[in-house]
Amino acid sequence: MADIALVFGWTPDAMYHMTIEELADWRERARIRNNPDE
Description:
This protein is mostly helical and 38 residues long. The chain has helices at 2-8, 12-15, 20-34. It has one domain. The protein contains three helices and no strands. Helix 1 crosses helix 3 (20-34). It is flat, with a radius of gyration of 10 Å. Pfam families: Phage_P2_GpE. This is GpE family phage tail protein.
């Protein structure tokens, strides 16, 4: 969750009710946004 918070500026409260699948999807988006050349 820290990588999502860092990239998108979200607090833990914003992610608390997300499912594991949603968190995994947002984590992948954060990874792509943070490392666009990979």
